């Protein structure tokens, strides 16, 4: 029942997100400040599709683990309190607080960053960036948010609050909403979140708040937007391959671990900063990014553009059908659907990378 509720929320949100993306594109075009590119947008949406498809195959981590902890270990004496209007507010505050720390640790741990990095790989910033979700997030989150199940917060309340927090974060991924005065002091807003996605040295690892920015102010990670933001990751992906985007940092983490001797160093690589060097026992600096460095934008023209749009459209339609009925399919059929979607998205990414496509 809770899984169906979660899927219904997602399916209802999709058309709203697409309409808002179209509105943002039209507005940017009219004011001569377009923040969209076809290849980047398709890449972002591909990660969104991939994350939802993988979630359909990870039902246990998505909500099953929470329900299990709640059923067998939850302190249900508090249940009447959570059902009150002020209990709902407390649930939101607890979730937002835990989300802040999970988000912060996801930038400060090599293993967690490997999962989270995909959300930051886009070098543009628009509503489609919000849909560039992490596919392996539920595996980590189910452990982190288990405390909410332990204190007796019912699964349906967890689903609704987590969905609200996730949907809220959509509107803060835009360059077209400027500073909002006193609202910026309390809430995560476009201005605050632009800082979070920026890779300017002064903006790195700042503004982790999901809905409230007060946690950043309390724990010293708040940074006001004071200049131009450069987006992406310090080490750019420079690829439209959706599977590489998903796994590239994991691959780098494994390579770093395989070169290190001793179990302690290997563990440190996973828990310490993504830039931690196990041999030198310190964090290594990454080159400073400048606006003049440009963004990854291989030419997409001719038949490839139409092929990309056709294959991507077919993959989207297939994905929506899967999302609508996937929770009732046998697990083997879910994996088959996941494989088909991965192949479709891989073909789209392959065609968008001109150097490779030109060799066809």
Give a verbal description of the structure.
By secondary structure, the protein is mostly helical. It has 18 helices and two strands. The protein has helices at 2-30, 38-57, 59-73, 79-82, 85-108, 110-116, 127-130, 137-144, 146-150, 155-168, 183-186, 190-197, 214-219, 242-258, 263-271, 302-325, 331-352, 354-357; strands spanning 276-277, 282-283. It has a two-stranded antiparallel sheet with strand order 1-2. It is globular.
| Order of SSEs | HHHHHHHHHHHHHHHEEHHH
Major beta sheet, specifics?
Answer: 2 strands, antiparallel
Q: Radius of gyration over alpha carbons?
A: 21 Å
First and last CA, distance = 47 Å
User: How many beta strands in the DSSP annotation?
Assistant: 2
Pairing-aware structural class of the strands and helices? mainly alpha
Helical proportion?
55-70%
Name the quaternary structure. Answer: single chain
- Main β-sheet, spatial strand arrangement: 1-2
**Unreliable spans:** none
Mean pLDDT: 87
- The coarse overall form would be globular
How many H/I helical runs?
18
Q: Report the portion of residues in β strands.
A: under 5%
Structure described in brief:
The chain is mostly helical and 360 residues long. The chain is 62% helix and 1% strand.
């Amino acid at each position: 029942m809770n899984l169906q509720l979660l899927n219904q929320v997602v399916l209802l949100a999709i058309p709203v997100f697409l309409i808002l993306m179209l509105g943002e594109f039209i507005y940017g075009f009219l004011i001569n400040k377009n923040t969209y590119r076809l290849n980047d947008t398709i890449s972002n949406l591909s990660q969104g599709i991939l994350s939802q498809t993988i979630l359909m195959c990870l039902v246990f981590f998505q909500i099953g683990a929470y329900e299990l902890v709640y059923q067998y270990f939850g302190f249900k004496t508090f249940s009447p309190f959570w059902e009150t209007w002020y209990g709902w507010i407390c649930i939101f505050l607890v979730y937002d607080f835990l989300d802040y720390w999970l988000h912060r640790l996801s930038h400060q741990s090599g293993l967690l960053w490997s999962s989270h990095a995909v959300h930051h790989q886009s070098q543009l910033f628009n509503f489609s960036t919000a849909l560039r979700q992490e596919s392996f997030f539920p595996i980590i989150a189910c452990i982190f948010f288990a405390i909410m199940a332990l204190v007796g917060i019912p699964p349906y309340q967890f689903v609704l609050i987590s969905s609200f927090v996730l949907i809220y974060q959509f509107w803060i991924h835009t360059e077209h909403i400027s500073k909002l005065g006193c609202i910026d002091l309390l809430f995560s807003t476009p201005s605050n979140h632009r800082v979070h996605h920026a890779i300017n040295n002064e903006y790195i690892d700042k503004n982790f708040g999901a809905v409230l920015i007060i946690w950043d102010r309390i724990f010293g990670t708040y940074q006001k937007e004071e200049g131009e933001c450069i987006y992406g990751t310090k080490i750019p992906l420079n690829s439209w391959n959706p599977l590489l985007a998903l796994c590239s940092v994991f691959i780098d983490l494994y390579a770093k671990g395989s070169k290190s001797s001793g179990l302690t160093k290997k563990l440190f690589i996973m828990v310490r900063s993504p830039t931690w060097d196990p041999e030198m026992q310190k964090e290594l600096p990454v080159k400073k990014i400048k606006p003049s460095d440009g963004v990854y934008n291989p030419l997409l023209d001719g038949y490839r553009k139409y092929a990309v749009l056709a294959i991507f459209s077919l993959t989207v339609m297939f994905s929506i059908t899967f999302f609508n009925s996937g929770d009732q399919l046998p697990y083997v059929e879910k994996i088959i659907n996941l494989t088909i979607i991965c192949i479709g998205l891989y073909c789209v990414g392959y065609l968008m990378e001109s150097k490779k496509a030109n060799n066809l």
